[in-house]
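Today's session is about reading a structure prediction critically. Students often jump straight to the picture, but the first step is always the sequence itself: look for stretches that repeat, for charged clusters, for runs of hydrophobic residues. Only then move on to the predicted structure, which in these notes is written as discrete structure tokens rather than atom positions. Here is the chain we will use throughout the hour.
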Amino acid sequence: MAAYLILSGVIFLVVGILHLIRVIRALPVQIGGAALPMWVSWIGLFVTLALGIWGLVMAGCLGR
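Below is the predicted structure for this chain, in token form.
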């Protein structure tokens, strides 16, 4: 179970860092010809970072 929590926590943190890079560099994203607004990455940033940290805390890697 700990391996799963560590792996999922790290994946969520990587995705969160990618959202952060998009926000900092103001990179455009298009899906099917529609531009994705920047606020979507802000939400994605906070959600994925929270899930990543939560996964690592549950695995015992952080905070205990």
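Discussion point for the tutorial: The chain has one domain: 2-59.
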